[in-house]
């Protein structure tokens, strides 16, 4: 049997012991770094193992192929994203709209390092369009839940619209940080102010 075909059929190994889970986390961190730098197609399993200071056999023990590594990275990001938005929703109830604006901006800034690897993965494969849409829907739902927790009286349709605006502003902030979007030294602070004023105006009338 072809060894490559055999490795593709093997399932990703889910470690049961803490030491194994730590090893998997280190391998995925290394994979994310290499993929960010080189892109998914150019990344090799050997490079991932080298970056993790692990034997190549250890990498293949947990991940039978590079696609398995990619799947694990996307699953991990979905889990991290869900936990992060749950935490924001929990804070939103006791925050002012202006504070919530800052919390949401900081969230995407914090998630940015992990998001870069996922973006590189999604950009490399046209057949991952549905996964891209899933992440977008997850982010929109997370922002929307935070808005409703802060302003329970917000109309459903308006909550959807505001969530889309806020998410785009969050992405613009990351673009400014990466110098991918037009920016000046003071522009990020102006964007933060704009978000505070916007959410203050939209959410305050719908708060108890």
TrEMBL record:
Top-level taxon: Bacteria
PROSITE patterns: HTH_TETR_2
Keywords (A to Z) from UniProt: DNA-binding
Any one Gene Ontology molecular-function term assigned to this protein's record: DNA-binding transcription factor activity
Source species of the chain: Labrys okinawensis
Record's protein name: TetR family transcriptional regulator
Residue ranges occupied by any HTH tetR-type domain in the UniProt entry: 21-81
Gene3D superfamilies referenced in this protein's UniProt entry, alphabetically: Tetracycline Repressor, domain 2 (1.10.357.10)
Ranges annotated as DNA-binding: 44-63
InterPro entries (UniProt xref): Homeodomain-like_sf, HTH-type_TetR-like_transc_reg, HTH_TetR
Pfam family, any one: TetR_N
């Amino acid at each position: 049997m072809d060894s490559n075909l055999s490795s593709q059929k093997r399932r990703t190994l889910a470690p049961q012991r803490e030491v194994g889970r730590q090893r998997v986390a280190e391998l995925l961190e290394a994979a994310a770094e290499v993929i960010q730098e080189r892109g998914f197609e150019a990344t090799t399993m050997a490079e991932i193992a080298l970056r993790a200071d692990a034997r190549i056999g250890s990498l293949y023990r947990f991940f039978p192929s590079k696609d398995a590594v990619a799947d694990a990275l996307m699953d991990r990001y979905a889990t991290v994203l869900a936990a992060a938005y749950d935490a924001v929703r929990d804070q939103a109830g006791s925050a002012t709209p202006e504070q919530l604006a800052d919390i949401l901006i900081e969230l995407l800034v914090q998630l940015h390092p992990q998001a870069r690897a996922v973006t590189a993965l999604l950009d490399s494969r046209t057949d991952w369009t549905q996964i891209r849409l899933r992440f977008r829907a997850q982010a929109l739902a997370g922002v929307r839940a935070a808005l409703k927790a802060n302003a329970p009286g917000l109309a459903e349709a308006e909550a959807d619209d505001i969530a889309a605006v806020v998410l785009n502003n969050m992405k613009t902030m990351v673009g400014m940080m990466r110098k991918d979007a037009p920016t000046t030294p003071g522009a990020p602070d102006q964007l933060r102010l704009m978000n505070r004023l916007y959410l203050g105006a939209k959410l305050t009338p719908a708060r108890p």
